[in-house]
Amino acid sequence: MSNTLKKVLRTSGSFAILVLALWYTLRGVDFARMTEAVSKANYWWVLSPVPLMVLSHYLRGLRWITLMIPIQAGLSVWNSFSGVMVGYFLNNLIPRSGEVVRPYLLSRRERIRFSTAIATIVVERVLDVLSLGIFILGTIYYSQSRLLAALPDVSDKLINSLVILPLGLIVGIVLLLTTNIGEWTLRVSIKPFSERLYVKLHNYLEAFINGFSIFTSPGLWWRVIVETVGIWMAYSVPMYLAFIAFGFEQHYNLTFLDANVIFTISAIAFLIAPTPGAFGVYHSLVQLGLVKLYGVANEEALAFAFVTHGVSYVMQLMMGGAFMLYEQSRGFHLNEIRTEESPVLFNDNL
């Protein structure tokens, strides 16, 4: 299959999912009530989280530099931050395109190997998935009764069994890092049927293992943990400030912990969405969470989803676009990059 056909199929699939998600979200909505909910929001509170959003992106760039310290100390946080923002900008236009551009930009500016930058991106992705797993565990613990009420056909045993997923992920990572099980599995199940696919998956596995072998200094662990906590707090606090903007803490008695539940749902949306900036998928899941778990009116929930997504989306486009122009002024062009060099793990908008 040609690369052009692959791109056409990916774009068509992404567009189809976007349309389907928006149709599901907008069906039966009273647009007059939704417009009223949007107009009544307190936009001082809506816009107040923007500095925290910028801080979260800066902390992501800072953590990336921390992961690089064992390889090459003294890298520029500015260059890292610029790469992060350009990555967000592109992901909001073409799903997952920023996955490749971000490490390429850093390798170009700092004269480090592209494969090394990719390896640290792999570490970042695993840290993000583990962090999300912790939020999911917290959501299950805090909202179990609400989940059971919202999903009457689901037993508490099934909900409790979801705890196994993050724990299983941790065990799987440890096995991949400390044993030959990953390579053995590829050699037995893939190599006899497709040498090309085997080589591709082997390279991804090698990048994964190399990424963690880079992080060999225990003295950096606490720094990475603190930076990771800072990133996720700078993500979750804006959700609660948006609750205040829409009056949810008064009308529905929603708390900061409830904001973290909705934030977890939104993070899952960004994780799985194959659409630009998680368009449609974010709106659908956030609306569903607010309506089913907290009894928020359908139109209010949708207004909340559109406004919170819109603020973040526009901010990333504006800042990311400015950094894109900055990088282009320094000689960067997208056609320099060969996208097949990098594994795409999941949406980089987390």
Structure description:
The chain has 350 residues and is mainly alpha-helical. It contains 16 helices and no strands. The longest helix is centred in the middle third of the chain and has 37 residues, at 114-150. Helix 4 (50-68) crosses helix 5 (77-91) and helix 6 (98-110) packs antiparallel against helix 7 (114-150). Helices cover 76% and strands 0% of the residues. The chain has helices at 3-26, 31-40, 43-47, 50-68, 77-91, 98-110, 114-150, 156-161, 164-178, 181-189, 195-214, 221-246, 248-251, 256-272, 281-294, 298-329. It has one domain (46-341). The radius of gyration is 21 Å and the shape is globular. The two termini are 31 Å apart.
Keywords:
76% helix; mainly alpha; globular; 350 residues
Nutshell version of this structure?
The chain is mainly alpha-helical and 350 residues long. It has helices at residues 3-26, 31-40, 43-47, 50-68, 77-91, 98-110, 114-150, 156-161, 164-178, 181-189, 195-214, 221-246, 248-251, 256-272, 281-294, 298-329. Helix 7 packs antiparallel against helix 9.
